[in-house]
Structures are given as C-alpha cells and as structure tokens.
Amino acid sequence: MQEAGLANPDLNARLTALALGSTVEQVTHARSSMEDSFDEETVVDHLSRLRASAIELRGAPYERWAAGARASAGTASG
What we know:
Structural class: mainly alpha
Strand content: under 5%
C-alpha cells in the first residue's frame, strides 16, 4: 500500500504490522473475557477503520467519517 501511495510512506511496515496485529490479538483476547462483549461484525468493522486511520489510508471508504471529523475540528474550542 505504501508503494501504491495509499498508506503513509514514513511508517515502518514491519513494525506497523506487528503493532496492529498485536492490537487485534489483544482485542480478541479481551473480548472473550468481557461480560458484555461486542458482536464480531462490530469488532471487525471497528478494527478495520482503526487500522485504516492508523496507516493514514488514502481512499478509505469512510469519507462520511472524515468529513465529520473535519467539521468537528473546525468547531472545536480551545
């Protein structure tokens, strides 16, 4: 994705993969021990969006979220 210009080229690809993979592993472990667990579809969707955000994925299908974040940033106080 970095070579294609879709992800932040300044990130170390191997370290990023390790960190994000560890996050998924930890969330999976924590989810199994939660009293009120999130359903699988919600977890996969959230982790996918988190990953896309972490690597600054360009062309992500979350333009609605990005537009909302830009709008919020313009109205945030101090």
